[in-house]
Amino acid sequence: MDQVIDANNIHGWLQEQVARSEFKLAYGITELLSVEPKFIDNLTDVFMKAGKSLKGSISAINASLAYKTISDSLLDGMPCDHSNQVLETGEESVTWKRVSCVHSQYWEKVGGKVEIYYQLRDEFIQGCLYDTNLLYEKIDEATSRIRRK
Question: What CA–CA distance (Å, rounded) separates 132 from 141?
C-alpha cells in the first residue's frame, strides 16, 4: 500500500483516483455512443445487470439499509463533497436530494451529456432493487426515493 498511496497526501491521492474513474467512465461512454447512439440500450442492460449483481446484499433489508448499500457502491465524489442530502430516512422509505453534481465536469470535458450518467445510474439502482420488496422512484430531477412496495 505504501508504494501505491501517497501517505503524505491521502486526500489528494484519493481525489485523483476518483477523478480518473469519473473521467474514464464519461470518456468511454461518450465515445461509444458517438460511434453508435443505439448502444445506449446495451449500456442500460449492463448497468441493470451490475445492479442485479449487488441485489443479493439488498433483498431482505429495509429501505434505509438498501440506500446505504447502494450509496456505498456509487461514486459521488469525496465524502467532503456532500453531493447528496438525505431528506427523510426510515425502514419504510428513504428520500434524498442531489445538492451538487460532482459528475458533470467530467462529462463536459469529453463533450458528453451528464444526463446519460444519471440514466445509467437509475438503471443500476433499479437493478439493485429488482425483485425485492423495495421500489425506486424519481420524484424530480434531483430528488429520489427508495420505499417499500
Answer: 24
| Residue in the block written with cell 451490475 | 50
| Beta-carbon count within 10 A of 120 CB | 19
Give the chain's length. Answer: 149
Closest by Cα among 31, 17, 25 to 111: 31
CB 144 within 8 Å of CB 96: yes
CATH no. of 7-148: 3.30.1380
pLDDT for the residue numbered 60: 65
| pLDDT over 90 percentage in the chain | 72
14 alpha-carbon distance from chain centroid: 18
Q: What are phi and psi of 40, to 5 degrees?
A: -60, -35
